[in-house]
Specification:
- Helix content is 5%, strand content 53%.
- By secondary structure, it is mainly beta.
- It has one domain (14-185): Lipocalin, CATH 2.40.128.110.
- The protein is elongated, with a radius of gyration of 16 Å.
- Mean pLDDT is 76; it is low at 1-24.
């Protein structure tokens, strides 16, 4: 597994790497999934950290689309969670999405792994921008893949004002890590 560098959320793009010989069959997420977001809180150097296991992966129009319900992110403190939800306009149904073209991914032979970087369309707060996603995919068993990915984004480029709590602001760059997303190709 690769050592993640700083990167962000939903959530979510690396899973698309898992498509091998048959780009026309469909992909299904199996088992639990986990992703994390991280950011720096300057100037005190504290870290913003949230986790969620709420993620879906579906194939749509030749793309793998990963999405997560932002309301499910757990920041570990009620005040941080409330501030995040307010700043990002999060309701119980607010989603972040990452879409990656299936033909842009590398698919290893069974028992092998591959890694690379692909462009993805990340949608947050109603705004879609291109992000670069680093991924690693392992072909674990016939039609079964395990994907890890990471990417970073500047949340202020998605129509969100700087997030500050008690006059201390979160740096604009947020990192997203998707950990061992299991996909089956059917």
């Amino acid at each position: 597994m690769f050592a993640p560098s700083k990167s962000f959320l939903p959530l979510l793009v690396l899973a698309s790497l898992v498509c091998s010989d048959v780009a026309h069959a469909s992909w299904t997420k199996t088992g639990p999934s986990h992703f994390e977001i991280e950011g720096e809180v300057g100037p005190i150097g504290d870290e913003l950290h949230a986790e969620s296991s709420s993620m879906s992966a579906v194939e749509q129009a030749g793309k793998l689309v990963l999405s997560t319900n932002l309301y499910a992110l757990d920041f570990g403190m009620a005040m941080k969670t409330t501030k995040f939800r307010q700043a990002f306009g999060v309701t119980q149904t607010t989603k972040a999405k990452l879409a990656i073209a299936l033909d842009a991914l590398e698919y290893p032979e069974q028992g092998e792994s591959a890694d690379g970087t692909v462009s993805g369309a990340f949608t947050l707060h109603g705004v879609t921008r291109t992000v670069q996603v680093d991924y690693e995919v392992s072909h674990a068993a016939p039609d079964h893949y395990v994907v890890s990915a990471e990417f970073s984004f500047d949340y202020t480029k998605f129509g969100v004002a700087p997030v500050c709590l008690l006059a201390i602001c979160v740096d604009e760059i947020i990192d997203v890590h998707v950990n061992e997303l299991e996909l089956v190709h059917q």
